[in-house]
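May I ask you to comment on the folded chain given beneath this request?
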Amino acid sequence: MTNQLSHSRSPYLLQHANNPVHWQEWSKSILDDAQEQNKLVIISIGYSACHWCHVMEHESFEDEEVAHLMNKDFISIKVDREERPDIDQVYMNAAMLISGRGGWPLNAIALPDGSPIYVGTYFPKSNWMQVLQYFAKMYQQSPEKLIEQAENITNGLQQFEQIPKLDSHQNLNINLLHQQWSSWKLQIDNHYGGRKGAPKFIMPNNYEYLLRYAKSSENVEVKNFIQLTLTKIALGGINDAISGGFMRYSVDEKWHIPHFEKMLYDNSQLISCYAQAYREFRTPLFKDVIYQTTKWLEEEMKAEDGGFYAAIDADSEGVEGKYYVWTWSELKEVLKENLYPFVDYYQCTEYGNWEHGLNHLHSDIELEVYCQKNHLDFLQTVELFQDCKQKLKNKRNERVRPSTDNKRISGWNALLLSAWIQAYWATNDDMFLIDAKELSSFFENKFKNRDGLWHTYNHSTSYIEAFLSDYAPAIQAFIHLYQATFDEKYLLQANQWMQFVTTHFYDEQSKMFYLNMHSADKLVSRPIEIQDNVISSSNAVIARCLWQLGTYFDDNSYKEKSKQMLQNVLKDTQKHPAYYAEWSILLWEQLYPFYEVAFTSPQAKDQLKNLYLEHYLPQVLPIGSDMISSTIPLLKDKKSPYIYVCKDYTCGAPILNSEELLSTLLEK
């Protein structure tokens, strides 16, 4: 047996193709081989942009001594967590059960059938060798102890994945939202935004929910917290000041120094979040973020044949962040007479603002405020800073660029499709709608298969059956695209995928949805994704889509499924609100039922866009059609060119124009 990763499509697995470790890709046949040879299995999970994955590769997996131990006593399997989120979820849950902590690289020692015995994250070389030697010896001398340990962990995993269906329903009321905020605000950082402490992850779904809560409660404290957090994130070093694009998380509480990888999913969700926040607050900085981030995506993440890449690495030349940071002498050389006030605003010093005397650009205040404090002309300073950034960008382009993970993931591209729509509504820029339609065409051409979706596309090939984490954002994105165009084909496609998901992912016992299809290869447990992470819970997104599609098509079965799913997690939304924000949006939507706004005039799309430009109205569910005979029940028997405001399919008097519509909505 030799290293087989050179045959992989995954950029992450290809990074390990020349390791002396005899890596294999995950497959049932590999586990069969392990059982036939009676060897323990190493399951090492990571992703291409992961800094500590690279560190462990260099220290251990490129080392002949370590490779000898792994090859002699183990079958070693490499997994790209982005290609196989189901496998990652199983062993991440095992890590949480064993030690209460997880992360990447994720390294599991398992029985030949894949049942985990021990799971950890990064190991220095000496520690990893000790782990290997201990378990190899234990399996030779006392295999029954490891089998018992694996059985206990597997039982724990299966219990962990059990979601009880609650037959008795708790009444929903507004106090649930107020109680939730009372718990949530104890954990927030009122000085720098986000959660208290470090590291800090961005968690856009938190602020999308809080925007809705602030809207309905008129809670000034919540509004101030959202504005503070989004401002600090936009100004901090987590946002690349030179070319745009957000990094994955901040290692400090001030958002100054990031972990330097850039992920498509973070940036897509942040565009959506800032677009919604801009509609509510009209903060110019938030609009700048939308344009800066989308420009970066077009320049650095868009594939020539369509779609958007997964990630850009944290490392270049084996050093984390090397591409992004500056010595003082470099700044002086590039900026010359324009060194000040640029370096002052971005807190760069002769001694460095990071480790090893290096500088990373970040600020704490908006440029306009800085100019006022320092008696600088704002417009001249903006022009000066743009020139400085272009010079630094040109210089940075001479460096060795971090590698790009060029696979395209359907769920992450769907997140971006939704982002384009949100940006379109926020800015009135038709280019965003053009981008959305272009991405939807790529989506349907490359990710769509006969019945459902593919998870990945790379090397001109679509492969791996899609997961719930793909279908959920895809359904949501096509609902958004319908809302922006009133082209019913997008809504019908969303509904078709929902029917597919209900057939192939739904668990009748728990009334929730599995992460993988019923027909997927069996793992030691079958994950059901409930909690939000840096991406919203796929079950929560599906539940929201069921609620919306149930409203569009007057389908009570969809709505009942959505209600049951929310009831199953309702207690958790109160206990851990920051990790159930997407569920809280659903709770908010069920407490504040949609105004079904039916547009019947030829100017319907423009009327809706004008309405959305003027106000942040998350309680509006827009309905319109470009078809002569619509499939949407609420549009039947509606006269043109009127607008109808309805609630639970009961409609008010016809309205003639968007001004009257806005007045009607604001009165309610």
